[in-house]
Amino acid sequence: MSGKKGMKAYPVELKLEAIRLYYEEGKMRAEVTAMLGIGNASAVKEWGQVYRREGVSGLKKTKGRPRKSETEQAELERLRMENTLLKKFHTELRKEVLAKRNIGSSITNEKNTQ
User: Fold this and answer.
1) In a 3-state reduction of DSSP, which class is residue 65?
2) CB atoms within 10 A of CB 104
3) How far apart are the C-alpha atoms of 9 and 110, rounded to whole Å?
4) Confidence of residue 106 (pLDDT cuts 50, 70, 90)
5) Cα-Cα end-to-end distance for the chain
6) What span, in angstroms and rounded, lies between the C-alpha atoms of 14 and 37?
7) CA nearest neighbour of 46 among 76, 22, 70
8) pTM exceeding the 0.70 threshold for the entire prediction
9) Contacts of 35 (CB under 8 A, 6+ apart)
10) Residues 41/30, Cβ–Cβ less than 8 Å
11) Is the pLDDT confidence value at 73 over 80?
């Protein structure tokens, strides 16, 4: 798993509202978190610090490693390769099952043909 347990991504608008309530209206962080349904009171303080340093663009940044994005062409190639491998695997498995049952053998002996 990636990230911290219980961490939730909040929209920028909610962060801005929390900052406004805390700094402009003088509400306590606990009040702001209760009003807006934020899980962590220290998040309001952190958002305020980030907003002062970087502005709104700082609140839009995501934390952690960016997700891998696969182009449609790369995904299509990967899926085709997987499909080919699965078909080969199925063919080999089918041959093995038939050989265990002694079915489908191209070699026949005289006892079986009489």
Assistant:
1) coil
2) 10
3) 74
4) low
5) 64
6) 10
7) 22
8) no
9) 21, 27
10) yes
11) yes
Number of C-beta neighbours around residue 23 at 10 A: 13
How many other C-beta atoms can be found within 10 angstroms of the C-beta atom of residue 47? 21
Three-state DSSP state, 113: helix
Count other Cβ atoms within 10 Å, centred on residue 65: 8
Tokens 């958002």 correspond to: 47
Tokens of residue 106, six digits: 């191209």
Round to whole Å and give the CA distance between 43 and 14: 12
User: How big is the chain, counted in residues?
Assistant: 114
Supply 55's token pair. 């502005």
Contact 37, 21 (CB under 8 A): no
Handedness of CA 70, 76, 77, 78 (dihedral sign): positive
